[in-house]
Amino acid sequence: MAYDIAAQYRDASNLNARIALHTRFSTNPQGWMRWAFEQMQLAAGERILEVGAGPGTFWQQNLERVPSGCDITLTDFSPGMVEQARQNLRGSYPYFKLQVANVESLPFDDAGYDVVIANHMLYHVPDLPQGLSEIRRMLKPRGRLYAATNGLDNMRELTDLLRRFDAAQPYDISRIIASFSLENGEELLRPYFSPVRLLRYDDGLAVTEPEPLVAYAASMGSLAGQFTGETLARFRAFVEQEVADAVAREGAFRIRKSQGLFEAYRSEQA
After folding, report:
1. 161-214 pLDDT, tens per residue?
2. Radius of gyration for the chain, computed over Cα atoms and rounded to the nearest angstrom
3. Residues 6 or more apart from 190 whose CB is under 8 A from it?
4. Do 42 and 18 touch, CB atoms closer than 8 A?
5. Closest among 181, 206, 31 to 120, alpha carbons compared
6. What are the residue ranges of helices labelled H in the chain?
7. 69-121 residue pLDDT tens
8. 18: phi then psi, degrees, rounded to nearest 5
9. 259-266/96-100 β-pairing
């Protein structure tokens, strides 16, 4: 698992392919990044830490909404991601600090942040209790964590598509997020945070072009190494037909999404 994640996120290319599908074909016009930022209600002068920040897309899409005087530190375990974030955010906001860091061992002082953000990344943490302990350690008393994740049925239609292409294909999107999902996230957070509440985001995908869906599937986990050459060509032809049929039937290839954001406050009892 550790090698697979490291390979997946060596740079931003795989993540960008997935972001592109959601950006172009999501049915919620507000978009995930804008919606999530709104829920956080960040205040002027707050110290904010994002773990697993990737290429900084969350901040790129919300730059004009960042309150004045905020001190923002973005971390990722991947040097390639940190470098991409540095390029994406260069000159755009004076308070960004960027650093390579693993959420299981964060190189910062205790109780230094008002807010910690973990955007669709906690299900990748090998030792989740250690990661949550570190996040709690980062927060000031009554500081808050915003942890985004998916439900187990998220994008089930994509799993079904892969299985129709290859019945022996063991890939299941829900397996990626099973360690921290909408279904079990509150239970996992409660030993470290209280209160905890879940904010749900209503969205879906209405895909009308095959190539972004091909790129998304080919970017995922072990499939990134399998969908090459002749296999990729066969998969592309298969998806082209599936999307064409769905568009003819109902206007788009429709994929249901299940996403949300946990808001959790540092518990003094933990």
Report:
1. 998 998 776 667 778 889 999 999 999 999 999 999 999 999 999 999 999 999
2. 19
3. 196
4. no
5. 181
6. 2-8, 13-25, 32-40, 57-60, 79-89, 128-138, 156-165, 173-177, 185-189, 210-218, 223-226, 229-250
7. 999 999 999 999 999 999 999 887 777 999 999 999 999 999 999 999 999 99
8. -75, -40
9. unpaired
Question: How far apart are the two ends of the chain, measured CA to CA in Å?
Answer: 29
| Amino acid letter, 46 | E
For 50, the token pair is 């994002």
* Cβ proximity of 96 and 67 under 8 Å: no
The one-letter amino acid at 191:
P
**Tokens (6 digits) for 167:** 């019945």
Residues near 250 by beta carbon (within 8 Å), at least 6 away in sequence: none
Query: What would the pLDDT profile of 109-133 be if each residue is shown by its tens digit?
Result: 999 999 999 999 999 999 999 999 9
Which amino acid is it at 198?
Answer: L
- Burial profile 52-62: b = 16 or more Cβ within 10 angstroms, e = fewer: bbbbbbbbebb
Q: Taking the mean position of all CA atoms in its chain, how far away is CA 165? A: 26
Q: Are 216 and 25 in contact (CB under 8 A)?
A: no
Q: Domains plus CATH for the chain?
A: 2-153+172-204+256-266 (3.40.50.150)
Of residues 17 and 195, which shows the higher confidence score? 195
Place of tokens 């740079």: 11
